[in-house]
Each structure stands twice: as structure tokens, then as C-alpha cells.
Amino acid sequence: MFRQKMIGFLSAGVVGGAVFLMQPAVGEAASAVKVATHQDFATTVANLKKAVSSNGMMVMGSINQGKMLSMTGLTLKSETFFVGNPMMAKKLFTSEPGAGVAVPIRVTVYVAGNGKTYAIYTPPSELLAGTHNKMAVKMGKMLDKKIGMLVRGLGR
Rounded distance, CA 151 to CA 47, Å? Predict the structure, then answer.
């Protein structure tokens, strides 16, 4: 019984999280940025964590979708990391209390059906555009540059 409830909860969270992650801003289509890493899954995850910490950010949490979905019989390598900087978040949330739609930034590392490892995220400024708060969007663009640099670095 508990296992069935947990599977239902986790599936809804993963599906809901994926829809939320890709939800376009009002009047705009949010587009995910996907980078092929040329490394295996474990190396990509380690390199992401190293890049995040050495660039003034931190991994605030993670969800291992592969582990959760294994309860349903699906074999998948996929983990989402919540990346941010508490001081930047303080400034952003002070300007826009609804900033949680975009931060912490969600970066997902996964292995596709072709065996290649990818990192994917949605630029925070695109998610913040729907707030119609110019300061929040400006800070989102600063975060776009930072997270873009980190994720693109995984593809080198």
C-alpha cells in the first residue's frame, strides 16, 4: 500500500516537475538549453557539482529520477540538481516573491536513448518573464549567463 502511494506521489512529482520546468512564461515559449556532454553520466554529475561550487554557487538539493522511477520498472539515468546562490536568491525574492518559479535553477543530467549524456536547463530569465518584473528579469539574465557558462562547460 505504501509503495503504491509512494509511486503515485513520485510519478506525479516527476511529471508535475517536468511540466513546471518547461512551462512557458505568459505570452512566450520558454526554451530549454540542452548540451551534449561527451562524458558518462557519473563524470558529468561530478563535473557539474565541481563547476557549481567553484563558481560561487551551490547545489541546494537534487532529485534522482532514475532511482525513483526504478520503482515503476523504468531504467533511467536522470538526476535534477537545484543550483543557486542564497545571496542572489535573497535579492531576487526581495524584488519578486514569485521568483521560486525560476530559482533555484533546475539542471537535469540524463542519459538519452542514444547512450549520450546531456545536461539541460531552462534559462531563469525566460521563466521570470511572466512575472512582468523588470528587475527580476534583469537578475534572471545574469543567472542565464552564469548557468549557461557552467552547463556549456560540461560539453567541452
Answer: 10
- The three grid cell numbers given for residue 78, joined into one nine-digit string: 536522470
Integer Cα distance of 52 and 30 in angstroms: 23
77 φ, ψ to 5°?
Answer: -105, 110
> In whole angstroms, what is the distance from residue 122 CA to residue 85 CA?
17
pLDDT (tens place) for every residue of the chain, 156 residues total: 434 434 343 333 333 333 333 344 444 567 999 999 999 999 999 999 999 999 999 999 999 999 999 999 999 999 999 999 999 999 999 999 999 999 999 999 999 999 999 999 999 999 999 999 999 999 999 999 999 999 999 998
CA distance 83 to 81: 6
